[in-house]
UniProtKB/TrEMBL annotation:
Residues binding ATP: 9-17
Enzyme class: transferase
Protein name stated in the entry: Cytidylate kinase
Gene expressing this chain: cmk
Alphabetical keyword list: ATP-binding, Cytoplasm, Kinase, Nucleotide-binding, Transferase
Domain Cytidylate kinase: 5-200
Entry's EC annotation: 2.7.4.25
Location, primary (coarse class): cytoplasm
Taxonomic placement: Bacteria, Pseudomonadati, Pseudomonadota, Alphaproteobacteria, Caulobacterales
Catalytic activity: CMP + ATP = CDP + ADP; dCMP + ATP = dCDP + ADP
Gene3D superfamilies reported for this sequence: P-loop containing nucleotide triphosphate hydrolases (3.40.50.300)
InterPro entries from the UniProt entry: Cytidylate_kin, Cytidylate_kinase_dom, P-loop_NTPase
Length: 214
């Protein structure tokens, strides 16, 4: 069995930072699957398409590979995040990206993937599963500070409303909704700094390694 680490959770919970640190610690490749959906949304909008056009979004998704999301600053904006949440609700888009994500997870030696349906759909047999979360207000504050530091002009109340809207959409969609896998360990980072959150995540992974003899 390979060491596949599935890190799920809502926006701005810290899952991406934790996943990247875990990948570095264990020497594993890392895929932020949310960037795939951001790439679909951004490419679709740049082509003049509608985020509600499932056929067009699916066609864009079929053209992607992991290299498309490695170093693209356009994918870090709030607009890209909103676009991702909308196109992620299309079953065709999710189906088009399924093979890509599962192939990444199947690499020899293992991998770290973070997203919203890794432990439930992409890698349901992953030996290490985390569901990282925090309160909406704390997550909105993190994202607001992150974006304003980059020069984006957005009010905190608008950021909070965006976080709450995305949570509702991600949890309520019919295709692979965001839910905690039954065997995932909950990690609430509301009152944690990144070092404390990473240490807690690492201990969860270590427990999983012992359990599965990895």
């Amino acid at each position: 069995m390979s060491l596949i680490i599935a890190v799920d959770g809502p926006a701005a919970s810290g899952k991406g930072t934790i996943a990247a640190r875990l990948a570095q610690t264990y020497g594993l490749p890392h895929l932020d699957t949310g960037l795939l959906y951001r790439a679909v949304g951004v490419k679709l909008l740049e082509a003049g398409g509608s985020l509600d056009d499932e056929a067009a979004a699916t066609q864009v998704a079929r053209s992607l590979d992991a290299a498309d999301v490695s170093e693209d600053p356009r994918l870090t904006t709030g607009e890209a995040g909103e676009a991702a949440s909308r196109v992620a609700g299309h079953p065709g888009v999710r189906a088009a990206l399924l093979d890509l994500q599962q192939a990444f997870a199947a690499q020899a030696g293992g991998a770290v993937l973070d997203g919203r349906d890794i432990g439930t759909v992409i890698a349901p047999d992953a030996p290490a599963k985390l569901f990282v979360t925090a309160t909406p207000r704390v997550r909105a504050d993190r994202r607001w500070k992150q974006l304003t530091a980059r020069g984006f002009d957005i009010g905190f109340d608008d950021m909070l409303a965006d976080i709450q809207r995305r949570d509702e959409r991600d949890a309520g969609r019919g295709a692979a909704p965001m839910v905690q896998a039954e065997d995932a360990v909950l990690l609430d980072t509301t009152d944690m700094g990144i070092e404390a959150a990473f240490d807690a995540a690492r201990r969860i992974v270590e427990a999983a390694r012992v359990k599965h003899g990895l």
